[in-house]
Amino acid sequence: MPRSVRVEYAGAVYHVMCRGDRQEVIFRSDEDRRLMLQTLGEVCERTGFLVHSYVLMPNHYHLLLETTEPNLVAGMKWFQGTYTQRFNARHRLKGHLFQGRYKAIPVSTDDHEYFRVVSDYIHLNPARAGLWAGDRRRLADYPWSSFVPFVCGRKLPVWLVRKRVFAALELADEGVSARARYRAYLERRAAEVAGGQLTDADEEEWRSVRRGWYIGDEAFGEQLQERIDLAVRGRRRDSYRAEGLRRHDERAAEEALQRACETLNVTVNSVYALRQNDPLKQAIAWWVKSRTVIPDRWICERLEMGNRVNVSRAVRAFRQASDATRRRLRARLYKCTD
Question: Distance (Å, rounded) from C-alpha 323 to C-alpha 286?
Answer without folding.
Answer: 15
